[in-house]
């Protein structure tokens, strides 16, 4: 066989290298490691027995939960911290709570502990309006902006409140987004 099959030590090293470059969740890291194993299997070519390759791949994939557990125990892999950080970033970017929760669900985080905070949601709506140069930040058709905000997950009441704010109030709310989540 060309190259050794991935063992737990090699998978652990690959996981650390990936996490050094990218923020990730347990689910995401498990997918990265599984794809690495699949690439190794495809790279073996026709020289090796397909059954041997399949067996080595099964053994390597069985080692993934142990690698993830070791990283979790060390505190390197923490879905709760990832969720809190990503929620904060998405809110600052002007994403609604619903959109942020959908983003986290796509990353494999089932039920993050993200408190409902109407003021934070209003601040996120203001950040969205600033990015779109609408409401207090510029002229834009109100109906189109309301529709876009609804598609982005904002409640109509929140969207209308954000549109009705003065620019100074909206800026103050956006600047308050740097505060930690309660």
Walk me through the structure:
This protein has two domains: 70 residues, no CATH class; 99 residues, no CATH class. It is mostly helical and 182 residues long. The model has no long low-confidence stretch (mean pLDDT 90). α1 crosses α3, α2 packs antiparallel against α3 and α7 crosses α8.
What is the element layout, followed by pairings?
Elements: H1 8-21, H2 26-43, H3 50-74, H4 79-92, H5 97-106, H6 118-132, H7 142-151, H8 156-164, H9 167-175
Helix pairs in contact: 1-3, 2-3, 4-5, 6-8, 6-9, 7-8
- Rg computed from alpha carbons, rounded to a whole number of angstroms: 23 Å
As for the number of domains, it is 2
What overall form do the CA principal axes indicate? elongated
* Class per helix and strand makeup: mainly alpha
User: What share of residues are in beta strands?
Assistant: under 5%
- Write the element-wise H/E pattern from the N-terminal end onward: HHHHHHHHH
DSSP E strands, number: 0
Name the poorly predicted regions: none
Q: State the share of residues found in helices, binned by percent.
A: 55-70%
Distance between the termini: 54 Å
State the helix count.
Answer: 9
Multimeric status of the protein: single chain
For the largest beta-sheet, the strand count, sense and barrel status come to: none
Mean of residue pLDDT?
90
What's the gist of this structure?
This protein is mainly α. 68% of the residues lie in helices and 0% in strands.
Which terms would index this structure?
mainly alpha; single chain; 68% helix; 2 domains; 182 residues
């Amino acid at each position: 066989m060309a190259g050794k099959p991935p063992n737990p030590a090699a998978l652990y090293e690959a996981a650390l290298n990936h996490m050094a470059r990218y923020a990730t969740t347990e689910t995401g890291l498990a997918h990265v490691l599984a794809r690495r194993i699949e690439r190794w299997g495809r790279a073996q070519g026709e020289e090796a027995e397909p059954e041997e390759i399949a067996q080595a791949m099964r053994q390597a994939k069985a080692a993934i939960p142990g690698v993830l557990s070791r990283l979790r125990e060390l505190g390197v892999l923490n879905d709760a911290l990832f969720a809190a950080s990503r929620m904060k970033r998405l809110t600052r970017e002007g994403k609604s709570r619903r959109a942020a929760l959908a983003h986290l669900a796509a990353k494999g985080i089932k039920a993050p502990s993200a408190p409902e905070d109407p003021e934070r949601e209003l601040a996120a709506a203001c950040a969205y309006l600033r990015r779109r140069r609408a409401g207090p930040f510029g002229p834009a058709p109100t109906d189109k902006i309301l529709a876009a905000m609804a598609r982005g997950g904002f409640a109509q009441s929140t969207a209308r409140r954000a549109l009705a704010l003065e620019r100074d109030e909206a800026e103050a709310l956006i600047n308050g987004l740097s505060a930690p989540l309660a």
